[in-house]
Sequence to fold (293 residues):
Amino acid sequence: MAKQIEPVKIAVVGGSGISEISGFDNVTEVNIETPFGKPSAAITVGTIDNVRVAFLPRHGKGHTILPSEINNRANIYALKSLGVEQIISLTAVGSLQQNIKPKDFVIPEQVFDKTKNRVNTFFGNGIVAHVGFADPFCNELRDIIHKCVTELAIEHHFSDTTYLCIEGPQFSTRAESKIHQKNGFSVVGMTIVPEAKLAREAEICYANIALVTDYDVQKHGEEVAVEKVMEVMDAISTACKKLIKILIPRIAVREGKCQCRHALENAVQTSKEEVTKAPAYKDLSLLLKKYYE
Ligand SMILES: [Zn+2]
Fold:
């Protein structure tokens, strides 16, 4: 545990092509062990305009972890143990709609989960909880991101946007992609589930910025490939860094009156006496103690 560290309230979780972040001052690295194992990498803690920020590359340093292999529970628990209250998640995605072009930024409003093989909850082992997930992202955070991308004149998509999360690691077939397009999903990626679900269980505000790198397999001759994804990511990382720089100080002064911070208040179904006796309680007290101690 990182008990000696001064709390960090904001974290950025980076995805493909964003394995480090520049523009941080006073950088240190924190290695955290959690009851769920180790996070994807040491967490970089630094400051942007005097605001303390943590950065975690979800695929590990040097991109060594498959989407299905990410230890999301360790990642979110580690950030929670640092004191994180808000997460900005960055992901590379493919477009499922003609009007969403490579290099555009999407701030998804909804998520559609088609993952199959992932541990997607902190609960179980004696404690049953069902958090609300109708609005999977923090709309207060989304609004601030929206203002920032508008000011920076970054092409973006905000309302009625859905991130489809597939298991991967293969990209979609043409048949799958056709159905995804027909269903009206905006972008396809492999990583924000269960990250967003666990953030909600940990009562951390969470919003995603989906960076469009390709048209998935919509267009013959332009099918998504790793090489193309990385090329486009290089091109948009400058805009992404500018966005982070203006975004962090603004979310730092947000009051945080949203429901995300109380997600567990009425979510635990297990009786009070059973919760504190449950084998899971020790590992989950970081999340539950405000209601039970
Ligand atoms: Zn929130």
In short: DSSP finds seven helices and eleven strands in the chain. The pocket of zinc ion is lined by residues 138, 140, 205, 258, 260 (CB under 6 Å). The mean pLDDT is 94.
